[in-house]
Write a structure and sequence with these properties.
It is built from two helices and two strands, in the order H-E-E-H. The chain has a two-stranded antiparallel ribbon with strand order 1-2. By secondary structure, the protein is of the alpha+beta class.
């Protein structure tokens, strides 16, 4: 499905279920790194994709949902495993 304009730049896509402050700590650390690399997180935003094992799989300046979905679809169509994405 194609997202409407109102969903093209959400504040966040999903929040994982965690115990304690681990999610907040991760976001704070990633936000600090992004700022130190010149990203205006308030205006541009940033995207962190975590793998099921908890490691960061991808970081981007801004949020590009169409690219993320397109990458998964392309991998699946190429016969690649997408279960851990």
């Amino acid at each position: 499905p194609v997202l409407g304009d109102e969903m093209s730049q959400p504040a966040n896509v999903a929040l994982p279920v965690t115990v304690g402050d681990s999610w907040k700590t991760l976001i704070d650390d990633e936000a600090s790194d992004a700022i130190s690399q010149g990203v205006s997180i308030e205006e541009e935003g940033f995207c962190i994709i975590l793998k099921k094992n908890g490691r960061v799989g991808q970081r981007t300046r801004g949020i590009f949902l169409n690219n993320l979905v397109g990458n998964v679809v392309a991998r699946k169509e190429a016969g690649m495993d997408v279960k851990n994405i």
